[in-house]
Amino acid sequence: MATHIVLLRGINVGKHNRLAMSELKALLTDLGHTDVRTLLNSGNAVVTTADADSAAVARRIRKGISDSFGLSIPTIVRSRAQVEAVIERNPMPEEAEREPSYFHVGFCDPAPSQERLDAIDGTTLGADRIMVRAGTCYLWFADGLRNSPLGRVLSADKLGVSMTMRNWNTVRKLLCLAGP
């Protein structure tokens, strides 16, 4: 059995894409997942399944959400081991420790191209920083996300990929929820 961490993008933000975590949990169970647990109200879940293929799990969940709720929700799934590796290869550990709510991980599908990354003008980011390791974006919002220069770059879709962000505290909590 494989443990996967499910990350839904853009649900329960404002009036659109509303999905109660109890409904998500029921759907994940109906799809055959066991040990289903959710975290917060923003589309985080941990599931156990016989399928070790994270991409296949993501496709089934995305289709299940579409079929059951009529929502088109970008869905990224990573194995427990993949999320553990994301934590281990963090290139900005001091920032993550100092202010974990300002440090985010951007889970991408697919990985952003080097061409797209090179097109970001670093001189416009102020103290914000982005570093990419193994297709995962590590994002430092020096003064928080709200008025961040890096946040404006990301909202302009300069990376050209589907990405969902979680702050460092949430990433660590999800790994703990996924168990040993």
Look at the helices and sheets and give the structural class. Answer: alpha+beta
Q: What can be said about the biggest beta sheet?
A: 4 strands, antiparallel
**How much is the average pLDDT?**
94
Strand order of the largest sheet: 2-3-1-4
Task: List how many beta strands DSSP finds.
Answer: 8
List strands and helices in order, with pairings.
Blueprint lengths: L1 E7 L12 H10 L3 E6 L4 E6 L4 H16 L5 E5 H9 L4 H6 L4 E7 L4 H5 L10 E5 L2 E5 L8 H7 L6 E6 H10 L3
Antiparallel strand pairs: 1-3, 1-4, 2-3, 5-7, 5-8, 6-7
Describe this structure in words.
The protein is of the alpha+beta class and 180 residues long. The protein contains 7 helices and 8 strands.
State the gist of this model.
This protein has helices spanning 21-30, 54-69, 80-88, 93-98, 114-118, 149-155, 168-177, and strands at 2-8, 34-39, 44-49, 75-79, 103-109, 129-133, 136-140, 162-167. With 180 residues, the chain is α+β, with helices and mostly antiparallel strands.
